[in-house]
Amino acid sequence: MPEGGLYVVKGVLCMNGSVFKEELFKGKKVFITGGATGMGLGFSRAFLEHGANVFIASRNAERLELASEKLKELTGKSILWKVMDVREESSVEEAVGFIEQEWGSIDVVVNNAAGNFFCPIENLSENGWRAVVDIVLDGTFRVSKKCFPLLKQNGGSIVNIIANYAWSAAPYVGHSGAAKAGVLNLTRTLALEWGRHNIRVNAMCPGVVLTEGVKKNLLGDESIIERLENDIPIGGIASVEQMAQQVLYLCSPAADVITGEVLVADGGQSLVGNMFYSLGKEFYK
Length: 285
Ligand code: COA
What we know:
Layout lengths: L5 E4 L2 E4 L13 E5 L4 H12 L3 E6 L2 H15 L4 E4 L5 H14 L5 E4 L14 H26 L4 E6 L12 H21 L4 E8 L5 H6 L4 H9 L9 H12 L10 E4 L3 H4 L4 H7 L2
Parallel strand pairs: 3-4, 3-6, 4-5, 6-7, 7-8, 8-9
Antiparallel strand pairs: 1-2
Helix pairs in contact: 1-2, 1-8, 3-4, 4-5
The site of coenzyme A has 13 residues, from helix 4 and helix 6.
């Protein structure tokens, strides 16, 4: 993906590969958890490039600072950031308190922070299960709940990032699968409970996106990547920028009648089969 300017993507004139107009989120206040790396960093960049004010929070100050510098370099815009652990209620409270002081309200929350690793359930420790469920499911609950008073002021949008094993089985990533399934259900519940406050709550479901974290923790081997690519009917392995377009859409006025939905952006991969079943079976003989 080019680093700046106007480009033609599939016949459409775009800014930085985006089909959306530059000022789509002008002045909007956007909070992205895990926004310093991987997809979260791509979402941060995309919102900045469409006029939003962006606040990111995650556990590592160094990565947050680096992300802030990188985003400034790429977009010419400054972000706000704070260290936050989605597993700690007080930490989430502090971060949201900071947003309240700085902005007074929020328009968009992207629950993107996640943790995952391959491990068959029979080998998974209590603590390993708890770590992932606490980050993914409890973290989404905590952040959404704490942001609610700020979201309801002007209405807004929440996007929860899930995975395409949330509605089937999640072999060898069972902790993540159970947690993402919980997030999917929570997405629909919140859509109903908060609709009267004009807060839309949706989930975005990527397929295979090769961020540095995914390469390192889940899909290190090139041959695995090739095999996964063969099972994606359209578009191949997706880029972070493509996933950012889905999130922008869900938060845009074009989606203002969409709530409690899941946007599956996996090139049809989940219709073909379970991503991890045969790979995991070979690995954990
Ligand atoms: N296999 C089996 N168990 C694992 C594991 C692995 N690959 N990685 C972590 N665990 C277990 C640990 O052993 C520990 O359990 P124990 O105390 O019974 O030994 C438990 O999970 C917590 O791990 P720890 O590293 O102490 O927790 P943490 O809070 O620092 O981090 C994660 C938890 C999930 C965030 C961490 O595994 C991680 O950093 N993963 C990679 C980052 C990531 O997932 N990015 C998203 C990619 S989609």
